[in-house]
Specification:
Blueprint (H helix, E strand, L loop, with lengths): L5 H5 L1 H17 L13 H15 L10 H4 L7 H17 L4 H12 L2 H4 L3
C-alpha cells in the first residue's frame, strides 16, 4: 500500500504555488507582518516558499538555508509567527483543503517555531 503525501493530495507544486500566492496576498495585507517583506523580491520569495511548503508537505527535498539562519536578525515574536500560521491556514482553507489536512500541515509548520522566533 502506498502512502499519499499531503503534497500529492493537494496537487503537487503547481497547486501549492497557488496556495502560496494567495497566502502572500493575505500576508502583504496584514500590518502585523507585511513590513518584514517591504524590501523582499516577492517573486523570488513566492518561488522559494512554494518549494519549502512543498517539502514540508512531503514533496521534493528542500535545499534552502536553515530556518534559524534565514530569520536571523528579524527578532520575530509569537504574534508574527501566529499571524503567518493563520494566513497559511486561511489560504489552505480557501483552496478547499479539509480541516484534517490543514491541521497536519500546520503541525509541521509548528515544529519550526523555535528555529524562527527571537533570532
Amino acid at each position: 500500500m502506498t502512502t499519499t503525501t499531503l503534497y500529492d493530495k493537494l496537487g503537487g507544486e503547481e497547486a501549492i504555488g497557488k496556495v502560496v500566492d494567495y497566502f502572500y496576498d493575505l500576508v502583504l495585507a496584514d500590518d502585523t507582518v507585511n513590513h518584514f517583506f517591504a524590501n523582499v523580491d516577492m517573486e523570488k520569495q513566492r518561488r522559494h516558499q512554494t518549494k519549502f511548503i512543498s517539502f514540508a508537505l512531503g514533496g521534493p527535498k528542500y535545499t534552502g538555508q536553515a530556518m534559524a539562519k534565514v530569520h536571523a536578525g528579524m527578532n520575530l515574536q509569537p504574534v508574527h509567527f501566529d499571524a503567518i500560521v493563520k494566513h497559511l491556514h486561511d489560504a489552505l482553507k480557501h483552496f478547499g483543503v479539509d480541516d484534517a489536512d490543514i491541521s497536519q500541515a500546520l503541525s509541521k509548520v509548528e515544529t519550526l517555531r523555535d528555529d524562527i522566533l527571537y533570532k
